[in-house]
Each structure stands twice: as C-alpha cells, then as structure tokens.
Write a structure and sequence with these properties.
Distance between the termini: 18 Å
Largest sheet: 3 strands, antiparallel
Pfam family, one: DUF2087
CATH class: Mainly Alpha
Organism: Anaerovirgula multivorans
InterPro entries: DUF2087 (IPR018656)
Number of domains: 1
Strand order of the largest sheet: 1-3-2
CATH architecture: Orthogonal Bundle
Protein name: DUF2087 domain-containing protein
Oligomer: single chain
CATH topology: Arc Repressor Mutant, subunit A
Number of strands: 3
C-alpha cells in the first residue's frame, strides 16, 4: 500500500522548499513535489527549469534542484542539455 509522505516540515508557509532532507524517502517526496510544478508533454529550456526551481525553493541553489530532479528520473534531459521534459507516468 502506498503511503503519502508528509513533507510540510521542508516547506515554508508559501509552499517553497526550505531544505532537502538527507533521508531518501523525504528527499524523493520533496523532489516529487517540485516535479509537480512541471507539465507533462511540454519541453523546457534549461533557463525555464532553473526559473521554476528557483521559484519553488528558498536556499538559492537551483543547480542542485535541477540535477536532483534529473538524477532521480523526475525530469528528463537531452544529451546536450538544451531540452528538459517531465516523463509520462505509466
């Protein structure tokens, strides 16, 4: 059975991410929350991804947010890094 993970402690009052947990289950849940800000069937430039990441966290490191989204399969990236997209769920 799927259990929803509560990430409220990692968000501020406006819903922005304040930190990434070192515990994997919270980290993935928080990244999934951020991935929810992206649309399926839409291509994004690196700048657009950076802007969305920057808008939804408070610690000023959109690079790590973007990398974590890609490394965890929550966003896909073309080999040259010119295009990003949110994968479709099965």
């Amino acid at each position: 059975m799927y259990q929803k993970i509560d990430i409220k402690r990692f968000l501020d009052d406006s819903g922005k991410i304040t930190q990434l947990s070192s515990k994997n289950k919270f980290r993935i849940a928080t990244l999934s929350y951020l991935a929810g800000k992206f649309e399926v069937d839409r291509d994004y430039t690196e700048k657009e991804v950076n802007d969305i990441c920057d808008e939804w966290h408070t610690f000023g490191d959109y690079f790590i947010m973007r990398r974590e989204l890609v490394d965890n399969g929550l966003l896909c990236r073309s080999i040259d890094g010119s295009r990003y997209w949110k994968p479709k769920k099965d």
